[in-house]
Amino acid sequence: MPIVTLTTDFGADIYAAVMKGVILGINPRAVVVDITHSVHPQSVEEGAFLTQAAWPYFPQGSIHIAVVDPGVGTERRALALANSSGIFVGPDNGVLSAALLQGARPDEAGPVPVPQGLRAVALTNPAYFRHLVSATFHGRDIFAPVAAHLSLGVPLGEMGEPVEALYALPPFRARRLADGSLVGRVVHIDSFGNLVTDVLGEDLPGDRIAAEIAGRRVRGLSRAYQGGPEILALVGSSGYLEVAVRNGSAAALLGVGLGAAVTVYGAS
Questions:
Q1: Roughly what angle, to the nearest 10 degrees, separates helices 144-151 and 15-26?
Q2: pLDDT tens readout for residues 26-66
Q3: What is the DSSP letter of 118?
Q4: Which pTM value belongs to this model?
Q5: Same domain, 57 and 163
Q6: Are residues 163 and 133 in the same domain?
Q7: Domain extent at residue 255
């Protein structure tokens, strides 16, 4: 059975359900899986992070739609990308960076050449769109029908012309300073209020660390959400450093949101 996943910032509104209806109307055998519809509104970076965190757990050949699209209706392109594991469909605003290996992504957000091993086409063939196409809902009228037709086996090349470059975000990896400290930021806040940063666990200097965020210092690395002081740091299931509060919300307690700075350094 073909699998189509959805990642959006649509929340509890009807939009995600409408996209599912379009997909199933074209391919009733499709298996539609929600990754999340709780991306913070217009947070392209968070949408890319969550798509990147989720897609490796799906079978090869799955189709992943990511719609965090503040530029819907503008001149931004609609794309479909294919790597060795699946197909990614969405706007050309960086949310599809999840399809690229970390090393193929730029130091700063911007256009990059399509890397080797990735196919990219602009979605320009209206034969695979809904009619008429709304200027404000490309998720329904372009991305969902394109993904549904791809799930039926329509070749990627039928969707439009190849592109040579696409807009990509930097890797989710904190910057290391000359003194060895790591300077990162919050890239996701989960439903528990845990602050997920772009500090990779593999980059930490061991368990003896200190993390500073919102004027608070967290010492040491805990193994579990219940395994430390009230405010704790741990490497979560995605492999990134998180700041959490035992039985509570770190986001609420610290009063921080997406993009909040975090600094991590070795501590004696």
A1: 30
A2: 999 999 999 999 999 999 999 999 999 999 999 999 999 99
A3: -
A4: 0.94
A5: yes
A6: yes
A7: 175-266
